[in-house]
Write a structure and sequence with these properties.
single chain; 410 residues; alpha/beta; six-stranded parallel β-sheet; three-stranded parallel β-sheet; 17 helices; 52% helix; binds zinc ion
C-alpha cells in the first residue's frame, strides 16, 4: 500500500509540467490513431465463424445489425473484417447421406447470403479474390467444412464440396470420423487411416486447406507427414496456456510452422483460460446444457447464441470466472514466441462458442491491433497476424494444387 502511494507520488512528481502531461496524452492518442489506421488498411481475416447455423433457423439475415450473436454486416464493417470463413458444421454423430444433405443446405445458405448482399459481400475461394474484395470495400465470404464426417467416406463428395467453393476441411469435429481420430474422443484409428491419408492427398490436389483443429495429436502428426501443402488450424489456441486437448502443444505449433502453416487463435473462453476450464465442472456443463435446451429446443443456431449468453449469466452469478479479451492477446503472443509472427492468425469461433468479455462481436476486433501495437509488435507483423499469414498459406496451397494437377495430367 505504502509502496503504491510512493509510486503515485513519484509518477505525479515526474509529470508536473504541462508539457509532460501533453506528451503523455499525445503518445497515447498517437498509438490509438496508428492502430486504427493500420487495422483498417489491413486485410483482417477470421477463419472460423459458426454463423451459418443461424441462417438455418430461417430468421437470421446478415444485412441488418442484430441484437444477438457476433456477426452481421454492420458489425463486420465496424470491426474492419475483410474476410470471413463460414463454417459448415453439424455434430459428428450425423453421418452418411444425411450429413451430405445437411452440408449442402448450409453451403447453399452461405451462398444465398452472398447473393442477397452483393454490395457488401462477395463469395471468394482464393487469396487473390480476397484481396480483390478488399480493394472494392467488400467483405469476402469463404467456407470451411468442420468435420470429415460430412464427406461420408467418399472422395467424390469432397470434390463436390470443393467445386461449390469450400476451401478448408477440418479432418474431424469433436468425435472420431470413419478415417481420423478426434482430440476429444477415444482413439480408434491411431491417427489417420489409409483412406484418411488419401483424403489429405486429395485435399492437397483440390486446393482445400487441411485443417487440423479438433484432431488428435496423432492425427495431426500423420497429416503433417502426408500433406504436401502447409497445414492450417482454423480455430485452435495454445495448450501451454490452457490445457484443452484440442488446443495445440508448443511442439505441434513449432512443427506446423516448420512446414509453413499457421495457427489461428480461438477466442472461446474454455480454450483461452485454464481457470475457466477448471471451473467448468460436469455439473455446471449439465446445468448450462439443460438451460440452453429450455430456451432453444433442438435449434442449433439458437443453442450456440444462447450458450454464450447463459455463460455470461453464470459469470454474473459467480458460478464461472470472468475471462477478458486480453487473454486472446496472451495466446497470440505465446504462439508468436514459439513459432514466430509468420505463423499466427485469428479464428474467432464467433457465434459458436463463449466469447470473453470485451470481444462480444466483430466490431471489437480493432482492439487486437491496438493491443499488439502497444505490446511493441511491428506494423508488418501485426498485418501478418491479422490476415496476411492466412493469405500466404492460401496462396501456397493454391500453388501446390496447381503443381499436383499438372503432375496428374502428364
Ligand atoms: Zn470447432
Amino acid at each position: 500500500m505504502r509502496g503504491e502511494m510512493l509510486r503515485t507520488i513519484l509518477t505525479a512528481g515526474l509529470c508536473v509540467s504541462a508539457g509532460c502531461l501533453l506528451a503523455a496524452n499525445v503518445t497515447a492518442d498517437d498509438i490509438a490513431a496508428r492502430a486504427r489506421k493500420l487495422h483498417f488498411l489491413s486485410i483482417v481475416v477470421d477463419t472460423h465463424d459458426d454463423t451459418t447455423q443461424r441462417f438455418l433457423d430461417g430468421k437470421f439475415d446478415l444485412g441488418p445489425r442484430d441484437a444477438n450473436g457476433s456477426i452481421d454486416i454492420p458489425r463486420m464493417k465496424e470491426g474492419g473484417l475483410g474476410a470471413i470463413f463460414f463454417s459448415i458444421w453439424m455434430p459428428s454423430k450425423v453421418t452418411g447421406p444425411e450429413a451430405v444433405k445437411r452440408a449442402l443446405v448450409q453451403i447453399d445458405a452461405v451462398r444465398e447470403q452472398g447473393r442477397k448482399h452483393p454490395g457488401d459481400l462477395v463469395l471468394a475461394t482464393t487469396a487473390e479474390e480476397v484481396r480483390a474484395a478488399h480493394k472494392q470495400g467488400k467483405i469476402a465470404a469463404l467456407m470451411g467444412v468442420e468435420g470429415g464426417h460430412m464427406i461420408a467416406s467418399d472422395l467424390a463428395v469432397l470434390r463436390s464440396y470443393a467445386a461449390l467453393g469450400v476451401r478448408y476441411m477440418t479432418l474431424t469435429h469433436s468425435g472420431n470420423d470413419e478415417w481420423a481420430d478426434s482430440s476429444t474422443d477415444t482413439p480408434a484409428h491411431n491417427g489417420l487411416t489409409d483412406f484418411g491419408k488419401d483424403v489429405v492427398r486429395e485435399m492437397n490436389r483440390l486446393g482445400v486447406m487441411v485443417d487440423i483443429s479438433h484432431v488428435s495429436d496423432k492425427t495431426f502428426y500423420d497429416a503433417l507427414e502426408v500433406s504436401k501443402a502447409p497445414l492450417f488450424a482454423s480455430h485452435s489456441s495454445c495448450r501451454a496456456l490452457c490445457d484443452a486437448p484440442r488446443n495445440m502443444t508448443d511442439e505441434m505449433i513449432k512443427a506446423l510452422a516448420a512446414k509453413g502453416g499457421v495457427i489461428q487463435i480461438n477466442y472461446h473462453v474454455g480454450f483461452l483460460s485454464q481457470e475457466f476450464r477448471k471451473a467448468s465442472t460436469p455439473e455446471i456443463a449439465k446445468q448450462l446444457d439443460e438451460d440452453v435446451k429450455k430456451r432453444c429446443g433442438d435449434e442449433q443456431g439458437c443453442q450456440l447464441i444462447e450458450g454464450d449468453k447463459l455463460t455470461r449469466e453464470f459469470v454474473a452469478q459467480g458460478k464461472l470466472p470472468r475471462v477478458d479479451w486480453t487473454k486472446i492477446i496472451e495466446h497470440i503472443d505465446h504462439a508468436v514466441k514459439i513459432a514466430g509472427a509468420d505463423h499466427v492468425g485469428l479464428g474467432s469461433d464467433f457465434d459458436g462458442a463463449n466469447m470473453p468479455f470485451g470481444m462480444e462481436d466483430a466490431s471489437k476486433l480493432p482492439q487486437i491491433t491496438e493491443a499488439l501495437l502497444r505490446k511493441g509488435y511491428s506494423e508488418g507483423d501485426i498485418k501478418k497476424i491479422l490476415g496476411e499469414n492466412t493469405l500466404r498459406v492460401m496462396t501456397e496451397i493454391e500453388r501446390v494444387s496447381r503443381e499436383l494437377n499438372s503432375a496428374t495430367r502428364q
